Amino acid sequence: MIPQWHPDVMTKKLPYLKARADLCAAIRGFFNDRGYLEVDTPALQTAPCMEAHLKAFQTTLIAPDGSESVKYLHTSPEFAMKKLLVGGLPKIFQLAKVFRNNEGSRWHSPEFSMLEWYQAGMDYEGMMDETIALLRHVAKDVLRVGDRTCDAHQDWEKITVVEALKKYAGVDIAKNLGDLAHIRAAGRETGVHISDHDDWDNALLKILMDKVEPHLGMGAPTIIYDYPVSMAALSRAKPADPRFAERFEVYVCGIELANAFGELTDAKIQRERFAAEVELRKKIYGEDYPVDEDFLAAVDFGLPDASGNALGFDRLLMLLTGAASIENVQALPV
Length: 334
Description:
Order of helices and strands: HEEEEHEEHEEEHHHEEEEHHEH
Distance between the termini: 15 Å
Helix content: 25-40%
Shape: globular
Radius of gyration: 20 Å
Number of helices: 9
Mean pLDDT: 95
Low-confidence stretches: none
Strand content: 15-25%
CATH architecture: 2-Layer Sandwich
Number of domains: 1
CATH topology: BirA Bifunctional Protein, domain 2
CATH superfamily: Bira Bifunctional Protein, Domain 2
Largest sheet: 9 strands, mixed
């Protein structure tokens, strides 16, 4: 096998690397023009994430006095960036290297780049508008995956999770949120395998992935929003209907590109969600990660009303260039 550093490989990769540099410059220009401050937070963290199904890289920090402590490479700069919001930085963005173990495919890498940005005082509908503006700024041509194309300059589709499930899977969850028997029956009817070990959220995710996601972002990007509150992660419940959360995702050509929240500012609720994720991780994988108490202390001190978004930089570059694999757009992939 020819090594990744070989000149023949680099010659073929060079157009992608030039496009990568151009995309970095375009993103920085967009956020600089809007008054954002670029930040750089540590990759080494006390807690890598809280999502039960993400696996992190673990290491040992040795202090000058010889004492040791367990640390993790972050799976997202989210916790650290929200601490900066608490500290009084109202508009921040970061192009961060992030790390997720046990991942690898044409769209996944154990080390990849994430664009995250947060704005105090912005609601999640405002974040939708800003995400549209960003994509239109960086995408001068159509986005594409194989023969599928998507034009960010066309009118974007906006559809709720409930509406998307009805439209593409014929499943209505509005009156049956959390009903495991109902979602298992829906899986059988739609031909999606739901195992006896799947809880309601996992069963719903399987239906979304199999029956809904392949239809999203065709012709124009799709914003799918208002996830059930059990899938809220770090987003807040909708004040008008707390059964759902202020969370949206962006899809292009059937590929998930971004995940955004109207941020949860209640430390008590956040702690309860973290505890539930810890228990789920223990149940499924027999392991757990520590809770970032410093993050919870910051939220309790006063996380301002804000919205934030996490966008896969490498995926966006793949969509812009038509690259067949994430390795094509990384100079020296893992």
